[in-house]
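[Q] Does anyone have a clean C-alpha coordinate version of this?
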Amino acid sequence: ALSSADRDFLRAFRPYTILAPTPTVAHAAESASWKINLAKKIWGAPVEIEGTAGGRSFVAADGAGDIVLFDESGEVRRRAKLASGVFAGIASGKDAVAAPTSTAGLVLLDARTLVERARVRLGPALGADAVFDVASGLFYAASSDGDVVAVDSTGTERWRKKLASGVFAAP
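[A] Here you go.
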Protein backbone atom coordinates (compact mmCIF):
# COMPACT_ATOMS: atom_id res chain seq x y z
CA ALA A 1 0.00 0.00 0.00
CA LEU A 2 1.08 3.57 -0.62
CA SER A 3 1.77 6.06 2.15
CA SER A 4 -0.64 8.99 2.46
CA ALA A 5 2.14 11.35 1.26
CA ASP A 6 2.70 9.22 -1.87
CA ARG A 7 -1.05 9.11 -2.52
CA ASP A 8 -1.32 12.91 -2.21
CA PHE A 9 1.65 13.37 -4.55
CA LEU A 10 0.10 11.11 -7.18
CA ARG A 11 -3.31 12.77 -7.01
CA ALA A 12 -1.71 16.18 -7.47
CA PHE A 13 0.20 15.31 -10.63
CA ARG A 14 -1.38 12.44 -12.53
CA PRO A 15 -3.05 9.11 -11.91
CA TYR A 16 -0.18 6.93 -13.20
CA THR A 17 3.32 8.00 -12.38
CA ILE A 18 6.73 6.96 -11.19
CA LEU A 19 7.88 7.38 -7.65
CA ALA A 20 11.42 8.60 -8.36
CA PRO A 21 14.08 7.58 -7.66
CA THR A 22 12.55 4.23 -6.72
CA PRO A 23 11.72 1.63 -9.37
CA THR A 24 7.97 1.91 -8.74
CA VAL A 25 4.94 2.50 -10.92
CA ALA A 26 2.03 3.64 -8.78
CA HIS A 27 -1.61 4.66 -9.01
CA ALA A 28 -3.66 6.52 -6.45
CA ALA A 29 -7.34 7.24 -6.63
CA GLU A 30 -10.12 7.82 -4.13
CA SER A 31 -11.22 4.18 -4.34
CA ALA A 32 -7.94 2.27 -4.61
CA SER A 33 -4.19 2.53 -4.74
CA TRP A 34 -1.44 0.16 -5.80
CA LYS A 35 2.18 0.02 -6.88
CA ILE A 36 4.35 -2.27 -8.99
CA ASN A 37 8.05 -2.60 -8.22
CA LEU A 38 10.64 -3.26 -10.91
CA ALA A 39 14.32 -4.11 -10.40
CA LYS A 40 15.87 -0.75 -11.35
CA LYS A 41 14.92 2.89 -11.82
CA ILE A 42 12.23 3.57 -14.41
CA TRP A 43 13.31 6.20 -16.95
CA GLY A 44 10.00 7.08 -18.58
CA ALA A 45 6.33 7.17 -17.74
CA PRO A 46 4.25 4.03 -18.30
CA VAL A 47 2.46 4.05 -21.65
CA GLU A 48 -1.07 2.90 -22.39
CA ILE A 49 -1.60 0.07 -24.87
CA GLU A 50 -4.18 1.12 -27.47
CA GLY A 51 -7.30 -0.93 -28.10
CA THR A 52 -6.94 -3.40 -25.26
CA ALA A 53 -10.07 -5.51 -24.76
CA GLY A 54 -11.40 -5.75 -21.23
CA GLY A 55 -10.05 -2.49 -19.83
CA ARG A 56 -6.97 -0.35 -19.98
CA SER A 57 -3.46 -1.84 -20.07
CA PHE A 58 -0.09 -0.19 -19.58
CA VAL A 59 3.59 -1.02 -20.07
CA ALA A 60 6.61 0.17 -18.08
CA ALA A 61 10.29 -0.74 -18.37
CA ASP A 62 13.37 -0.22 -16.22
CA GLY A 63 17.14 0.16 -16.46
CA ALA A 64 17.69 -3.57 -15.92
CA GLY A 65 15.64 -4.50 -19.00
CA ASP A 66 12.59 -5.68 -17.07
CA ILE A 67 9.37 -4.80 -18.84
CA VAL A 68 5.92 -5.27 -17.34
CA LEU A 69 2.39 -5.22 -18.80
CA PHE A 70 -0.26 -4.37 -16.21
CA ASP A 71 -3.92 -3.38 -16.10
CA GLU A 72 -5.55 -0.38 -14.46
CA SER A 73 -6.11 -2.33 -11.24
CA GLY A 74 -2.35 -2.86 -10.91
CA GLU A 75 -2.51 -6.56 -11.75
CA VAL A 76 0.59 -7.63 -13.64
CA ARG A 77 -0.45 -9.49 -16.80
CA ARG A 78 2.99 -10.25 -18.25
CA ARG A 79 6.67 -9.70 -17.50
CA ALA A 80 9.56 -9.97 -19.90
CA LYS A 81 13.31 -9.45 -19.77
CA LEU A 82 15.15 -7.53 -22.49
CA ALA A 83 18.81 -8.10 -23.31
CA SER A 84 19.73 -4.64 -22.03
CA GLY A 85 18.31 -1.84 -19.91
CA VAL A 86 15.81 0.79 -20.99
CA PHE A 87 17.11 4.28 -20.22
CA ALA A 88 14.57 6.40 -22.11
CA GLY A 89 10.80 6.46 -22.51
CA ILE A 90 9.06 3.61 -24.32
CA ALA A 91 6.37 4.17 -26.95
CA SER A 92 3.18 2.25 -27.62
CA GLY A 93 1.59 1.87 -31.03
CA LYS A 94 -1.48 0.02 -32.23
CA ASP A 95 -0.04 -3.46 -31.67
CA ALA A 96 3.57 -2.94 -30.65
CA VAL A 97 5.78 -1.37 -28.00
CA ALA A 98 9.15 0.22 -28.84
CA ALA A 99 11.80 0.21 -26.11
CA PRO A 100 15.01 2.23 -26.59
CA THR A 101 17.70 0.14 -24.89
CA SER A 102 21.23 0.92 -23.79
CA THR A 103 23.01 -1.60 -26.02
CA ALA A 104 20.47 -3.55 -28.11
CA GLY A 105 19.12 -0.57 -30.06
CA LEU A 106 15.38 -0.09 -30.44
CA VAL A 107 13.55 -3.28 -29.43
CA LEU A 108 10.03 -3.82 -30.77
CA LEU A 109 7.71 -6.05 -28.77
CA ASP A 110 4.20 -7.39 -29.30
CA ALA A 111 1.98 -5.13 -27.18
CA ARG A 112 -0.08 -7.96 -25.71
CA THR A 113 2.46 -10.74 -25.18
CA LEU A 114 5.72 -8.73 -24.78
CA VAL A 115 7.39 -11.18 -27.17
CA GLU A 116 10.28 -9.53 -29.03
CA ARG A 117 9.53 -8.89 -32.72
CA ALA A 118 12.64 -7.10 -33.90
CA ARG A 119 15.75 -5.12 -32.97
CA VAL A 120 16.83 -2.06 -34.89
CA ARG A 121 20.51 -1.22 -34.41
CA LEU A 122 21.25 2.41 -33.65
CA GLY A 123 24.50 4.13 -32.62
CA PRO A 124 26.30 3.46 -29.37
CA ALA A 125 23.32 4.33 -27.17
CA LEU A 126 19.79 5.62 -27.39
CA GLY A 127 19.56 8.79 -25.38
CA ALA A 128 16.02 9.84 -26.19
CA ASP A 129 12.48 8.56 -25.80
CA ALA A 130 10.96 6.51 -28.59
CA VAL A 131 7.94 8.15 -30.25
CA PHE A 132 4.93 6.67 -32.06
CA ASP A 133 3.15 8.71 -34.76
CA VAL A 134 -0.51 7.71 -35.08
CA ALA A 135 -0.94 9.25 -38.55
CA SER A 136 1.94 7.34 -40.16
CA GLY A 137 1.90 4.28 -37.90
CA LEU A 138 5.67 4.59 -37.45
CA PHE A 139 7.96 4.55 -34.44
CA TYR A 140 10.83 7.06 -34.36
CA ALA A 141 14.05 6.74 -32.37
CA ALA A 142 17.40 8.52 -32.24
CA SER A 143 20.88 7.74 -30.92
CA SER A 144 23.58 9.68 -29.13
CA ASP A 145 25.74 9.65 -32.28
CA GLY A 146 23.10 11.23 -34.54
CA ASP A 147 21.23 8.33 -36.15
CA VAL A 148 17.48 8.89 -36.53
CA VAL A 149 15.30 6.04 -37.75
CA ALA A 150 11.63 5.45 -38.59
CA VAL A 151 10.34 1.86 -38.36
CA ASP A 152 6.97 0.14 -38.55
CA SER A 153 5.60 -2.21 -35.88
CA THR A 154 7.42 -5.20 -37.41
CA GLY A 155 10.80 -3.45 -37.19
CA THR A 156 11.07 -2.77 -40.92
CA GLU A 157 13.06 0.41 -41.49
CA ARG A 158 11.21 3.02 -43.52
CA TRP A 159 14.09 5.50 -43.45
CA ARG A 160 17.29 6.36 -41.62
CA LYS A 161 19.18 9.67 -41.46
CA LYS A 162 22.54 10.59 -39.99
CA LEU A 163 22.65 14.00 -38.32
CA ALA A 164 25.79 16.02 -37.70
CA SER A 165 25.58 15.56 -33.93
CA GLY A 166 23.94 13.33 -31.34
CA VAL A 167 20.25 13.42 -30.46
CA PHE A 168 19.30 13.64 -26.79
CA ALA A 169 15.59 14.49 -27.04
CA ALA A 170 12.63 12.67 -28.54
CA PRO A 171 12.56 13.01 -32.34
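[Q] Thanks! Anything notable?
[A] The two ends are 37 Å apart (CA to CA).
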